[in-house]
Amino acid sequence: MIALRLAASLLPIVMFLIALVFLDSFKLVKLHHLLALILIGGLAAVIAFPINTFVFERFSSQAYYYSRIGSPLIEEILKGAAIVWLLANGYIAFMVDASIYGFAVGAGFVLVENTYYAGAFASGASSAVWLLRGFGLAIMHGGSTALLGLIGSTAVNDRASRNASRIAQGLIVAWAIHAFYNTSVFGPATSAVLVIGALPLIFALAFLRSEQTLRKWLTEGMDEDIELISAIAKDELAQTNAGKYLATLRQRFSPELVVDMLCLLTLSAELSMRAKGELMAREMGLKPASDPELQEKLAEMNSLQKNIGATGKLALSPLTKHSNREFWQIHFLKN
Amino acid sequence: VFLIEIQCTPKGKGLIVTVIGRLDTATAPLFDRKFREDVVAGGHKYVVLDLSKLNYISSLGLSSILIGNKAVTDQGGELVLCGLEGIVRQVFQMTGLTTVLKVFSNPDEALEGTLAS
Fold first, then answer.
1. DSSP string of A127-186?
2. N or C: which end of chain B has fewer CB within 10 A?
3. Is A290 in contact with A298 (CB distance < 8 Å)?
4. CA A34 to chain CA mean position, Å
5. Residue of A280, A287, A293 to mutate when probing chain B, most B C-beta within 10 A
6. Environment class of A18 (CB within 10 Å of its CB; exposed 0-12, middle 13-18, buried 19+)
7. Can you give the C-alpha Rg of chain B in angstroms?
């Protein structure tokens, strides 16, 4: 009976996660990342448990408030930490991957939590309550972390301060949903129904928006890269804005460094085109072979960046893209 | 202003589609329509896309070719490329799309290749 209840409460979240992965038309999400994040979510639950137990025991008179306000914050911070790290390091660049990875962390968390509850309160509730509780809790945990990622990812291409502000907003929303769920203002059943009804709708809208953003970034970025490569191939770089700007740098930097800058621009454009080409192919269900020269190209890019130095990179910044999506492309190619 | 011309020439069991000019934001919708009407609706299974007279391709152009490829493969056929030159060749190579689409040097070789497979 316990196993059946447990399966019934866990199955929906696994199915929801699979559905989200299928909706990822550009195949941004990698299976090994997804599994790692489920494990991290489980780990977050394991860490949250002694913290919550300690606070409950130490401040038992405040247990009512802590369970509704305090523990949701602790749990959302623990779950969100992995997503924030992925966002900050360019492993997540769009709403789709941010929300799927967020949901995976929540899934891992609830897998551990529901397993614990199944063992601890095996005979305390009817099957119907179990189902609703398990399902509602699963969608709430997955959805709240997914929303953190989703909101955080909307500023992934902006400056760091705006990025941090969006992540904070995401955390507040995740906390609010979790606290609302735990408070059970409308009763546990209604809260569960509200969460189950609202979150999939939010995801559907976010996925649509994300696809538009991705398509715009993909086409505009690739066209800029093609223009640059085309101008270099036709020996017409000097007539382009990039060429004119590079010419002005000759007065401030040695000819060797300016050549390195041009090589860096070309190589960055080449890697960017590769990543975007792969995304286009994946959308059509094709899987391009990995670039056999990728490691050499990445090593060359590092070497050029070192040669140019911080001042050179700053001088080159009007021509280069520094957003997290550009870093994400490199991670995407490596994996 | 001449931007693109698409010529469809049946040859044996195959169809050679020659694209002349530019395949970019302005011309990709024309290519899509022509491809849909003359190639996909015509039920052609062995399609050779001759790009030897194409002098520029943008992201939308690439996307149009991939969509065309999917439409042909969905009806059990195959689309192959030939005549990639200059910047068009570079774009296909750099994007890695030469690893998912077969590339031949000329239409005859391409037709032979697609019929053989």
1. HHHHHHHHHHHHHHHHHHHHHHHHHHHTTTTS-HHHHHHHHHHHHHHHHHHHHHHHHTTT
2. N
3. no
4. 11
5. A280
6. exposed
7. 13
Nearest-angstrom CA–CA distance, A189 and A129: 8
ipTM: 0.91
Predicted TM-score of the model (pTM) = 0.82
DSSP string, B95-106: TTGGGTS-EESS
Query: What's the CA gap between A88 and A96, in Å, rounded?
Result: 16
Q: What is the pLDDT of residues A42-64, one digit of tens each?
A: 999 999 999 999 998 888 888 88
Element (H, E) at A40: helix A31-58
CA distances A139 to A5, A101, A169, A249, Å, are 16, 14, 20, 55
A287 touches chain B (CB under 8 A): yes
Contacts of A333 in chain B (CB under 8 A): none
Contact B23, B56 (CB under 8 A): yes
Polymer length of chain B: 117
Q: How far is CA A195 from each of CA A23, A91, A133, A138, A318, rounded to the nearest angstrom?
A: 20, 28, 11, 10, 45
CB-CB under 8 Å, B63 with A234: no
φ/ψ region of A20 (left if φ > 0, alpha if ψ in -120 to 50, else beta) reads: alpha
Q: What is the pLDDT of residue A122?
A: 57
- The pLDDT value recorded for residue B1 is 57
pLDDT digits (tens, 9 = 90+) for A191-201: 777 877 888 78
Beta-bridge partners for B19: B6
Taking a contact as any Cβ pair under 8 Å apart, which residues of chain B between 70 and 89 contact chain A?
70, 86-87
Name the DSSP class of B58.
-
Radius of gyration of chain A (CA): 24
Q: What is the pLDDT of residues A243-273, one digit of tens each?
A: 888 889 888 899 899 999 999 999 999 999 9
- Assess contact for A277 and B96: CB atoms under 8 A: yes
CA distances from A149 to A103, A168, A197 (A): 9, 11, 20
> What's the confidence (pLDDT) of residue A274?
95
pLDDT at A84 over 90: yes
Query: What are B8's strand-pairing partners?
Result: B17
